Amino acid sequence: MNPTDRPVLCLASASPRRRELLSQIGVPHIVTGANIDETLRQDERARDYVLRLAREKAVSVRRGGQALPVLAADTTVVLDGLVFGKPYDRADAVRMLGRLSGRDHEVLTAVALADARGVQVRLSSSTVRFRALSTEECAAYWETGEPRDKAGGYAIQGFAAVFVESLNGSYSGVMGLPLFETGELLRDAGIACWGGAGGRF
User: Fold this and answer.
1) Residue 74 among the catalytic residues
2) Tens-of-pLDDT digits for all 201 residues of the chain?
3) 7: phi > 0 → left, psi -120 to 50 → alpha, else beta; which?
4) Does the global pTM surpass 0.85?
5) Rounded to whole angstroms, how far apart are CA atoms 170 and 61?
6) Which of 37, 74, 115, 188 is an active site residue?
7) Among 62, 64, 162, 151, which residue's Cα sits nearest to residue 113?
């Protein structure tokens, strides 16, 4: 993607990972962070939670006066039916990672696109298995600074890659922006990937 290309999309996220993934598929964009309440509602299922947040982020930025189509996403980690958000502190991160140790967990990422037609939403579900982790490893990982703003307390594209025994699903979805589902939404909205090279994809 040429950085001088005219933006065709607004990304409602300040996440550098989501920017990189959107740039990877050649979509010129601008960024406007969404400011919404991300509190999990009582008895709200994890899938409903991420779908709601992605939708609310996209609508919030769109209603704020953004004329471009607005893309938003939300990611959460789920284990035993419990939502693992961003850790509050070191102890919380070590606790989370200890719970994920040696087990399969689900990573849900919802992506939403708000434009003149309304809001369209897609959901990506992946299963990640961690090898067994020691408390010392979990604490050392916290000290890298990486887990502080990550759902479940880890970044699959970073140092935590050495924890991942297997992944069934979408690597980009676990990172925070599932490119298959994103591509579907963009195509339906008439937005070309790859800078429109060779046609519209």
Assistant:
1) yes
2) 454 578 999 999 988 999 999 999 999 999 998 989 999 999 999 999 999 999 999 999 999 999 999 999 999 999 999 999 899 999 999 999 999 999 999 999 999 999 999 999 999 999 999 999 999 999 999 999 999 989 999 999 999 999 999 999 999 999 999 999 999 999 999 998 986 544 444
3) beta
4) yes
5) 26
6) 74
7) 62
